[in-house]
Write a structure and sequence with these properties.
Number of strands: 8
Oligomer: single chain
Number of helices: 1
Radius of gyration: 18 Å
Helix content: 10-25%
Strand content: 25-35%
Low-confidence stretches: 44-48
Shape: globular
Distance between the termini: 36 Å
Largest sheet: 6 strands, mixed
Structural class: alpha+beta
Mean pLDDT: 76
Strand order of the largest sheet: 1-2-3-6-7-8
Length: 142
């Protein structure tokens, strides 16, 4: 058995507006993954070693989990991954097309999995998505 080739991470890509962006993780012919870091609501967090009443200064995430800003951040992450997959150069499509899976992750909280098995870059079907978020009506029921 041959040794697997490493997966690329933080891959640059061209966006439709002509700017360059990055995707978090990509494996040719397999998947595109975009990760975000949500955060808990205000007042939650760990205490620092300096004192029990002093909150540790933590970087806030892309949105507070369970709010519309968090939903929007995950939807933007899905669009970013889909734009990346659709914009892959021809030499990346030589093994049968675009990756059949897009994965969106809120680190430590949520994994959303989308599929498009024609590998043409068409419409995605939701395989796994948090119950509070709507699913795509074009996809078969689970």
């Amino acid at each position: 058995m041959s040794r697997p080739t490493p997966t690329s991470s933080r891959n640059p890509c061209r966006w439709p507006a002509g700017t360059t962006g990055f995707i978090d993780l990509y494996r040719r012919g397999c998947f595109v993954l975009e990760a975000k870091q949500g955060s808990e609501g205000a007042g939650e967090g760990e205490k620092s070693a300096q004192g029990e009443g002093e909150k540790k200064k933590l970087k806030r995430g892309t949105g507070v989990r369970g709010t519309s800003s968090w939903d929007t951040a995950l939807e933007k992450a899905r669009r970013q991954a889909q734009t990346y997959a659709r914009g892959l150069p021809p030499d990346e499509l030589s093994d049968g097309g675009r990756p059949p899976f897009l994965v969106v992750v809120d680190v430590g909280n949520t994994i959303e999995l989308y599929s498009e098995f024609t590998r043409s870059g068409g419409n995605l079907c939701t395989i796994s998505r948090p119950p509070q978020l709507p699913t795509d009506a074009r996809c078969p029921a689970r």
